[in-house]
Design goal:
Radius of gyration: 14 Å
Strand content: under 5%
Oligomer: single chain
Shape: globular
Distance between the termini: 48 Å
Order of helices and strands: HH
Structural class: mainly alpha
Helix content: 55-70%
Number of strands: 0
């Protein structure tokens, strides 16, 4: 059975990779590992985001 929301699955790489690339380019000023390890990079980005939401990780503002 389909819920009709599967059409939104294409947003996953946009949000996962897009925010990571912007962060690497403008905050960390380095090259992301996305091109070499794309799936691992995406999973790691979502894991970090989830941990930020639940308070396990803290934002480090410098």
């Amino acid at each position: 059975m389909y819920s009709g929301k599967e059409r939104f699955l294409w947003y996953i790489p946009i949000f996962g990779y897009g925010f990571a690339w912007l962060s690497h380019a403008f905050i960390e000023r380095n090259k992301p590992a996305t091109f070499r390890y794309p799936l691992w990079s995406l999973l790691s980005d979502f894991k970090l985001f989830f941990e930020l939401l639940i308070g396990k990780q803290k934002f480090n503002g410098k």
